[in-house]
């Protein structure tokens, strides 16, 4: 088969390609750095011809053109499996909506037909000599979306890193209907966490000593996981492994420090496994054609049963608020949506079940109200009304703030209340004790 001849036959312009979209269609923009650019702009130019086009995606790193057309919500809606700052703003504009899911189940939604998809538009690396287009650092659920779609359109970007090592991380030209060559923009970068604060370092100093040689790491997004990653890179730890949902810059630092070998993993030995990646250009350069890094579908990376088979699995994630029962909210503050469930439930439970494993929920004890400047506790008697529970109290393992760490495993309600309150800012502890008494989860004999 002459793949180059086939390529030329399917090559078209973005404006021609988007003509396939009809009012009422479900259109997949796929995920994170694979979100199309030229096709998005072309679809926006068709806005006056279209109504109720439902676009699905997640973790936007640039504002889509379809959100900026006049009366955008009449023509398009954004339906996101995970949200960041751009999407939070789109929610307030009445344009975006969250899809409450366990991210690990997303591939199965396409296989089962639960996630209808008429058209897939996806940014990919250039075709190789065998006719394959690599999805870049986003295996995630993209192959399943392509298999479920009636029409597959790829937007080729020469700057997309080729991410190797896994499976279902390519689509073949035989399964592509149209090819668009955009202007090869730089791949979207995710802003780094910057220099760690004193609070970040205090939390990191409590977590890193709990990590043994040979541990397998999962890091979430944020300042605290980033600070922990940097501290690991500077530590004496050795033979670490990586099996994570998201690959972030901290892993590059740890790998370049010689800490990652993956030698003690029971499977995927020597390989850093991840479902998607976002970060700096340095990260993309590190992943490009690197056979040590293994980009896999999210139902492999986040599988609880698989994670639990890895001894000494260390899961490190953040939170918005925690209550005295040990319920963790990482998605919303009251009814104000912030991010999404992602894979936190999967990795919290996988690490909890791992032999020697530890799941850490890391959270600064306080936050300043942006309007009033008032200091507020992130540890609350109960979660704010409307707050979504991301990790349940039955799965809480280690909770860490700058004031200490507490292992909630096997603890009764009063033991949890005592341990969690000890991690709160001192100015809030008396009120938390008083509330715990009202909730009947405080033993008077333990009152200080």
Automatic annotation (TrEMBL):
GO molecular function, one term: acetate CoA-transferase activity
Residues in Acetyl-CoA hydrolase/transferase N-terminal domain copies: 4-183
Domain of life assignment: Bacteria
Active site residues per record: 245 (5-glutamyl coenzyme a thioester intermediate)
EC number from the UniProt entry: 2.8.3.-
Example GO BP: butyrate biosynthetic process
InterPro entries: AcetylCoA_hyd_C, AcetylCoA_hyd_C_sf, ActCoA_hydro, ActCoA_hydro_N, Butryl-CoA_acetate_CoA_Tfrase, NagB/RpiA_transferase-like
Chain positions recorded as CoA binding sites: 320, 343
Keywords in alphabetical order: Fatty acid metabolism, Lipid metabolism, Plasmid, Transferase
Pathway membership, UniProt: Lipid metabolism; butanoate metabolism
Catalytic reaction list: butanoate + acetyl-CoA = butanoyl-CoA + acetate
Residue ranges occupied by any Acetyl-CoA hydrolase/transferase C-terminal domain in the UniProt entry: 279-436
Function: Coenzyme A-transferase that converts butyryl-CoA to butyrate.
Family, as annotated: Belongs to the acetyl-CoA hydrolase/transferase family. Butyryl-CoA CoA-transferase subfamily.
Name this protein carries in UniProt: Butyryl-CoA:acetate CoA-transferase
UniProt source species: Pusillibacter faecalis
Taxonomic lineage from the root: Bacteria, Bacillati, Bacillota, Clostridia, Eubacteriales
């Amino acid at each position: 088969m002459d793949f180059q001849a086939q390529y030329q036959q399917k090559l078209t312009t973005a404006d021609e390609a988007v003509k396939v979209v009809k009012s009422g269609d479900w259109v997949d923009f796929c995920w994170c750095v694979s979100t199309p650019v030229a096709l998005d702009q072309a679809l926006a130019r068709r806005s006056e011809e279209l109504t109720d086009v439902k676009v699905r995606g997640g973790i936007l790193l640039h504002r889509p053109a379809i959100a900026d057309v006049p009366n955008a919500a009449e023509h398009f809606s954004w339906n996101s499996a995970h949200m960041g700052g751009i999407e939070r703003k789109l929610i307030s504009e009445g344009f975006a909506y969250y899809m409450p899911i366990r991210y690990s189940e997303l591939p199965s939604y396409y296989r089962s037909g639960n996630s209808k998809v008429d058209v897939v538009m996806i940014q990919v690396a250039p075709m190789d000599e065998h006719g394959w287009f690599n999805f870049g650092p986003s295996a995630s659920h993209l192959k399943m979306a392509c298999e479920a779609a009636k029409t597959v359109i790829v937007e080729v970007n020469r700057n997309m890193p080729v991410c190797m090592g896994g499976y279902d991380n390519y689509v073949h030209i035989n399964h592509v209907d149209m090819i668009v060559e955009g202007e090869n923009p730089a791949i979207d970068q995710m802003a780094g966490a910057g220099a760690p604060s004193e609070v970040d370092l205090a939390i990191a100093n409590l977590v890193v000593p709990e990590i043994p040689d040979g541990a397998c790491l999962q890091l979430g997004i944020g300042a605290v996981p980033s600070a922990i990653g940097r501290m690991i890179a500077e530590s004496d730890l050795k033979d670490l492994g990586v099996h994570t949902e998201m690959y972030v810059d901290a892993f590059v630092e740890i790998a370049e420090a010689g800490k990652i070998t993956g030698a003690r993993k029971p499977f995927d030995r020597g390989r850093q496994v991840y479902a998607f990646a976002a970060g700096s250009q340095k990260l993309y350069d590190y992943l490009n054609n690197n056979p040590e890094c293994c980009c896999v579908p999210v139902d492999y990376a986040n599988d609880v049963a698989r994670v639990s088979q890895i001894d000494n699995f260390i899961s490190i994630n953040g939170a918005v608020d925690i209550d005295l029962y040990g319920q963790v909210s990482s998605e919303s503050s009251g009814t104000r949506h912030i991010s999404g469930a992602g894979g936190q439930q999967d990795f919290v439970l996988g690490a909890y079940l791992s032999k020697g494993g530890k799941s850490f929920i890391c959270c600064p004890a306080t936050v300043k109200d942006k309007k009033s400047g008032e200091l507020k506790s992130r540890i609350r008697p109960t979660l704010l009304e409307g707050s979504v529970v991301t990790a349940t109290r039955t799965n809480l393992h280690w909770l860490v703030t700058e004031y200490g760490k507490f292992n909630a495993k096997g603890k009764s309600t009063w033991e949890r209340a005592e341990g969690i309150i000890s991690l709160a800012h001192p100015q809030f502890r008396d009120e938390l004790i008083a509330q715990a008494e009202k909730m009947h989860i405080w033993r008077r004999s333990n009152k200080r």
